[in-house]
């Protein structure tokens, strides 16, 4: 039965072929029990960097000691990951996103959004690590932070430039206590207002977590 509202899946598929950051650990699985042999269940164990596919980075990704359990994926607030969100379609763009790229679109809205997702690609080839992709400038992060935005999202592997070692955008987001999503797939989404649901899993010892990110088309008005 279709629901009274439209759900748009904005997650990238995670398979053994899903590309990951160079040097990172891709998804793989080991079958530990087969239904065929056990006549009870199929069972697997998985290995992957939590940055494979659509995910949220936790603050501890960029500083500190994982052993302490604070600022990890499971320790993040859920509020930023669930609620009204605006998608801004900038595609195609493979450079830094600055406020000039989205200011006009966002300021036209009656309420300034708390969540902003940037569509930078018209096509996502999830099996390919794109060498050149769009990222957020520190100016963009500061502009959004100053206006109360609590979460941003992007359809590229990182909020920072591919070769960045300083991770300035990550640092600016952490300083502003903002959350962020990476590796979204917004190819089927237009500029507009939606309702985002993308909470991280409660991994208390990890610096990131996969999410199943969805948008609910707010035209239906059910979640307003
Ligand atoms: Zn990440």
Task: Draw up the topology in text.
Elements: E1 7-9, E2 28-33, H1 35-38, E3 43-47, E4 55-57, E5 82-89, E6 96-97, H2 99-107, E7 115-119, E8 135-136, H3 138-146, E9 151-154, H4 168-175, E10 179-182, E11 192-197, E12 208-210, E13 214-217
Parallel strand pairs: 5-7, 6-8, 7-9, 9-10
Antiparallel strand pairs: 1-13, 2-3, 4-10, 4-12, 5-11, 11-13
Description:
The protein has 224 residues and is an alpha/beta fold. Helix content is 13%, strand content 25%. It has a single domain, classed as Glucose Oxidase, domain 1 (3-Layer(bba) Sandwich). Helix 4 links the parallel strand 9 and strand 10. The longest helix is centred in the middle third of the chain and has 9 residues, at 99-107. The two termini are 22 Å apart. The structure holds zinc ion (ZN). Zinc ion binds next to strand 4. The site of zinc ion (ZN) has 5 residues, from strand 4.
Query: Which fold name corresponds to the CATH topology?
Result: Glucose Oxidase, domain 1
Number of helical stretches of at least 4 residues: 4
Distance between the termini: 22 Å
Major β-sheet strand ordering: 1-13-11-5-7-9-10-4-12
Helicity, in percent?
A: 10-25%
- Looking at how many chains there are and whether they match, the oligomeric state comes to single chain
Q: Characterize the main sheet.
A: 9 strands, mixed
Please write the string of helix (H) and strand (E) elements: EEHEEEEHEEHEHEEEE
Instruction: Characterize the overall form.
Output: globular
Task: Kindly provide the name of the CATH class.
Answer: Alpha Beta
Strand fraction equals 15-25%
CATH architectural name: 3-Layer(bba) Sandwich
Structural class: alpha/beta
Bound small molecules, by name, code or SMILES, are: zinc ion
């Amino acid at each position: 039965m279709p629901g009274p509202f439209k759900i748009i899946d904005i997650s990238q598929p995670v398979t053994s072929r899903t590309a990951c950051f160079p040097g990172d650990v891709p998804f793989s699985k080991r079958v530990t029990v087969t239904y065929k042999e056990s006549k009870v269940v199929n069972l697997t164990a998985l290995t992957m960097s939590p940055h494979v596919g659509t995910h949220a980075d936790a603050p501890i990704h960029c500083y500190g000691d994982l052993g302490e359990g604070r600022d990890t994926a499971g320790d993040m607030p859920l509020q930023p990951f669930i609620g009204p969100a605006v998608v801004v379609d900038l595609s195609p763009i493979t450079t830094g996103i600055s406020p000039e790229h989205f200011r006009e679109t966002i300021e036209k809205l009656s309420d300034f959004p708390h969540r902003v997702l940037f569509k930078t690609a018209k096509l996502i080839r999830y099996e390919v690590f794109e060498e050149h992709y769009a990222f957020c400038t520190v100016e963009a992060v500061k502009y959004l932070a100053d206006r109360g935005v609590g979460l941003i999202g992007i359809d590229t592997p990182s909020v920072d430039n591919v070769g960045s070692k300083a991770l300035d955008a990550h640092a600016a987001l952490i300083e502003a206590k903002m959350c962020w999503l990476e590796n979204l797939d917004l190819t089927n989404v237009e500029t507009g207002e939606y309702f985002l649901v993308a909470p991280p899993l409660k991994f208390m010892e990890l610096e990131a977590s996969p999410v199943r990110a969805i948008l609910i088309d707010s035209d239906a008005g059910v979640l307003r």
